[in-house]
Design goal:
Largest sheet: 7 strands, mixed
Oligomer: single chain
Number of strands: 11
Shape: globular
Number of helices: 0
């Protein structure tokens, strides 16, 4: 199966930027889509962005549109989340996810994704 390892989290000041990375290994040929979710304490796991591996089509949540960008590097089997103009409310554990069959209708539901990384902490200070 697919293994995912996130990195790049840390502590930043409000207005700053971070780039998260998700290294993908295993049966990548079976992966259709990659995505990013985040979960703050006491809150539901929230969809951030997704990218479909073959065509490169991307989608992102309204809450981060204009600030966060998902991208990929096929040669490195890596997906990125560039986060700009970070706000304290962005503080959360960020998870990378993968699935072999996603639709636009279901991609925002965390239960639709079959593979997950362990997460990386992002803390934004005010």
């Amino acid at each position: 199966q697919v293994q995912l390892v996130e990195s790049g989290g840390g502590l930043v000041q409000a207005g700053g930027s971070l780039r998260l990375s998700c290294a993908v290994s295993g049966r990548t040929f079976s992966t259709l889509a990659m995505g990013w979710f985040r979960q703050a304490p006491g809150k539901e796991r929230q969809f951030i962005a997704a990218i479909f591996w073959s065509g490169g089509d991307t989608y992102d949540a309204d809450s981060v549109k204009g600030r966060f960008t998902i991208s990929r590097d096929n040669a490195k089997n890596t997906v990125y989340l560039q986060m700009n103009n970070l706000k304290p409310e962005d503080t959360a554990v960020y998870y990378c996810a993968a699935d072999r069959k996603l639709t636009i209708a279901t991609m925002t539901l965390y239960t639709s994704w079959g593979s997950w990384g362990q997460g990386t902490q992002v803390t934004v200070s005010s």
